[in-house]
Amino acid sequence: MPNVVAPCLVIQGTDDEYGTVRQVEAIVGGVSGPARPLLVPDCRHVPHLQAGDRVLPAITNFISEHCR
């Protein structure tokens, strides 16, 4: 993934049945652009729906920081 240079906010629920923290770490460490993990506690596979009150503000902040 070194060709990915766009800012990446890598979001995953800590109880995601399809993904692991290791995958998030690999993405964050593998891209060339700025990247940050967002691990959402007590959340499964769809954090933007299951924890929108926590995820949507984080997305908004990330976009504000990186997309000017």
Describe this structure in words.
It contains three helices and two strands. It has 68 residues and is an alpha+beta fold.
Question: What is the helical fraction, as a range of percent?
Answer: 40-55%
Low-confidence stretches: none
User: How large is the count of helical segments?
Assistant: 3
User: How many domain units?
Assistant: 1
What is the first-to-last residue Cα distance?
Answer: 24 Å
The number of distinct β-strands equals 2
Major pleated sheet? 2 strands, parallel
How are strands sequenced across the largest beta sheet?
A: 1-2
SSE ordering: EHEHH
Radius of gyration, in Å, reads 12 Å
Question: What is the 3D form?
Answer: flat
Average pLDDT reading: 96
Q: Which structural class matches the secondary elements?
A: alpha+beta
Beta-sheet strand percentage?
Answer: 15-25%
